[in-house]
Design brief:
Elements (H helix, E strand, L loop, with lengths): L3 E4 L3 E4 L4 H45 L13 H5 L3 E4 L10 H6 L1 E5 L2 E2 L26 E4 L27 E9 L2 E13 L2 E3 L2 E3 L2 E13 L2 E9 L2 E6 L5 E2 L2 E6 L6 E2 L3 E4 L13 E4 L3 E3 L5 E6 L6 E3 L6 H5 L18 E2 L2 E2 L28 E2 L5
Parallel strand pairs: 3-15, 7-20, 13-24
Antiparallel strand pairs: 1-2, 3-19, 4-5, 4-6, 7-8, 8-11, 9-10, 11-12, 12-13, 14-15, 15-16, 17-18, 20-21, 22-23
Length: 382
């Protein structure tokens, strides 16, 4: 009669000749199979967690309680209903700024010489009086009263509060161009007091005082169809259905320092127009840091594509600021200026920007008519 051999944890096996080694092999193999099984289960769980996290990333904003929609007399409801929300980078240092503070903290100058007989005091209402000087205003620069390298506090702007508002600062101009045939272009212009350029081989290049960036949404019969994201010398266009949203309001990601607008978070190399790669020499960084709702701190205007005229929708929206043809910051410092640095022909400090009037407000396509191909993307990415 065969004897039974008891092995803890694996039951009993008959002690037949030649059988013990086979059973022993089975016994010793079970733990490794179990380990592989547990490892496989753990990997599946991690993949499920990752997939669930991605789902939450995209779905939770859609499930969030809807933000109150502003109602402003004269502004089409859809312009506010679908207005972009701006994600500022988590390490942003230069936040949206009050547009009037840019005037208060600067002096108008031509060729680094202050214009002594300008209007006093200058305000956003009479800023276009400077168009009397310097080739109809084109050569006028709003020049900082304080040396930029002393880091004047007003260049830092205002971080949005928990409601998404830049409290005490009007930092946006919303401009509406009714093109007829049930087609309306709404421009959401974002103002920052300072632009921090990209760092290339440890060299900071392209800084300038003043920064105007924007999104544009094209509406057809009150429905959003296309969206433009301004980026340095050009930008990107997407179908409205492709962009990330909170409810129906699209997200735009403002790059750290440069404030170029992108459709996704991450790293964006913008060396090649119309293409943003995940790495390269000229890289912008975007992330979900501070959420800004520009509609809460905006001026509102209508724009006529026929004659380029602005008109205020609300009484407190100063038209003079929109008509000013000069630059919203310092003139590029000459090489003889100790503040200026040059790296392979690129300058550390550049000219301040032109205002909203120069942002192709009457464009035919969703893209500016600048000679570059207008690519309309149906999905997010490069």
């Amino acid at each position: 009669m065969d004897k039974l051999v008891s092995t803890s944890g694996y039951g009993e096996y008959p002690s037949e000749k030649g059988a013990s080694s086979d059973h022993q092999h089975q016994i010793t193999q079970h733990p490794s199979r179990s380990l592989r099984s547990y490892t496989g289960i753990a990997c599946k769980i991690l993949l499920l967690i990752h997939a669930f996290a991605l789902l939450l990333w995209h779905v939770l904003p859609l499930l969030a309680p809807p933000r109150p929609i502003l109602e402003i007399d004269g502004v089409p409801s859809f312009v506010l209903k679908y207005a972009p929300l701006v994600w500022l980078d988590k390490s942003e240092r230069y936040f949206p700024s009050d547009i009037y503070q840019q005037v208060k903290n600067t002096d108008p100058a031509i060729n680094f010489t202050k214009i002594e007989n300008a209007s006093h005091p200058l305000t956003l209402d009479n800023l276009d009086n400077l168009n009397r000087f310097g080739r109809h205003g084109f050569n006028v620069f709003l020049t900082s009263k304080l040396d930029v390298e002393t880091s004047p506090f007003w260049l830092e702007g205002i971080a949005p509060n928990s409601d998404g508002k830049t409290s005490g600062a009007r930092s946006c101009a919303i401009i509406i161009n009714d093109r007829g045939n049930c087609e309306v272009d709404a421009f959401y212009m974002y103002f920052y007091a300072y632009n921090l350029g990209n760092t290339v081989f440890l060299q900071e290049l392209g800084d300038h005082i003043g920064d105007w960036e924007h999104n544009m949404i094209r509406f057809v019969k009150g429905e959003p169809t296309l969206m433009w994201f301004s980026q340095h010398g050009n930008g990107q266009a997407f179908k409205y259905g492709a962009v990330e949203k909170e409810g129906v309001r699209p997200y735009t990601y403002s790059a750290r320092g440069s404030h170029a607008n992108y459709g996704i978070a991450g790293t964006h190399d913008h060396s090649i127009p119309n293409l943003n790669l995940p790495s390269g020499f000229l890289s912008d960084l975007t992330s979900r840091g501070f959420l800004w709702d520009p509609t809460l701190s905006a001026y509102f205007y209508n724009y006529s594509g026929n004659d380029g005229a602005f008109s205020a929708i609300t009484g407190e929206s100063p038209v003079g600021a929109m008509n000013f043809r000069g630059k919203w910051g310092d003139e590029r410092y000459p090489d003889s200026d100790p503040r200026q640095r040059t790296f392979f022909g690129f300058k550390k400090y550049d000219n301040g920007p032109t205002g909203p009037w120069a942002k192709a407000l009457n464009r035919t396509k969703i893209c500016p008519d600048n000679g570059l191909a207008c690519i309309i993307r149906g999905s997010l990415g490069p």
